[in-house]
């Protein structure tokens, strides 16, 4: 009896619809918060990647009496959600190619830095630096020294944009999951009682 009540959802349609609503809302929140760079994070939250059954985007599984919903997202989802503290690149998750990543982001966003004209009398002794590379280095320096998705005049402490938290609140995830599970629980009890009463009625004849 306990396995049937806690370990199964006889009709998962409502639960999968809830997860689809959550992921679609998360994608929209990323767009609204201007937190889409390469699109990797947004694409990872695409419900259709799992064909409605999880797959690459999420997994729904029971762990004992707890129903766990896990989203498969790139690791930088955390920095988008919570922000990143200034660390001069010396702590936290290693960033293998920060300048290259920022340059690719600039290309995707069609960002072209403005180039200042050199003084007419200045003698150039070496080839001019790539403006895109110089701009990327400046952005990386700001991220390392002032943080990422921070706010305020001094950019002290991570703030984050919280698109996932806002999506969870908007779809009312916790209450809707409770309602779905309660409905499934009641159905299971109803079936169990009906079967038990049927056995008793037969034995009384």
What does this structure look like?
- With 205 residues, this protein is mainly alpha-helical.
- The chain has two domains: 2-78 and 162-204, no CATH class; 87-146, no CATH class.
- The protein is 50% helix and 6% strand.
- It contains eight helices and two strands.
- It has helices at residues 2-6, 13-32, 40-44, 77-82, 98-108, 131-146, 163-170, 173-204; strands at 58-63, 66-71.
- Strands 1-2 form a two-stranded antiparallel ribbon.
- The model is unreliable at 1-7 (pLDDT under 50).
Unreliable parts: 1-7
- Biggest sheet, open or closed, and with what strands and sense? 2 strands, antiparallel
Question: Mean of the pLDDT scores?
Answer: 75
Strand content: 5-15%
Helix-strand topology string: HHHEEHHHHH
Question: Gyration radius, to the nearest Å?
Answer: 26 Å
- By helix and strand content, what is the structural category? mainly alpha
What form results from the Cα inertia axes?
elongated
Give the distance, in angstroms, between the N- and C-terminal Cα atoms: 26 Å
Q: Into which percent range does the helicity of residues fall?
A: 40-55%
The number of helical elements comes to 8
Number of strands: 2
Strand numbers in spatial order across the main sheet: 1-2
Count of domain modules: 2
């Amino acid at each position: 009896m306990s396995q049937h009540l806690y370990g199964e959802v006889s009709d998962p349609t409502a639960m999968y619809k809830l997860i689809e609503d959550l992921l679609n809302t998360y994608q929209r929140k990323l767009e609204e918060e201007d937190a889409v760079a390469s699109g990797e994070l947004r694409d990872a939250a695409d419900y259709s990647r799992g064909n409605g059954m999880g797959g690459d985007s999420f997994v729904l599984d029971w762990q004992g009496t707890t129903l766990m919903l896990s989203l498969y997202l790139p690791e930088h989802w955390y920095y988008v959600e919570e922000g990143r503290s200034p660390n001069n690149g010396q702590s936290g998750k290693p960033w293998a190619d920060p300048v290259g990543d920022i340059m690719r982001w600039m290309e995707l966003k069609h960002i072209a830095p403005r180039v200042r004209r050199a003084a007419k009398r200045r003698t150039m002794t070496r080839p001019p630096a790539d403006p895109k590379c110089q701009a990327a280095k400046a952005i990386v320096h700001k991220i390392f020294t002032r943080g990422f998705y921070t706010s305020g005049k001094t950019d002290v402490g991570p703030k984050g944009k919280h698109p996932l938290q806002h999506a969870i609140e908007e779809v009312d995830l916790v209450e809707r999951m409770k309602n779905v599970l309660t409905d499934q629980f009641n159905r299971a009890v109803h079936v169990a009682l009906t079967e038990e009463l049927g056995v008793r009625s037969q034995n009384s004849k």
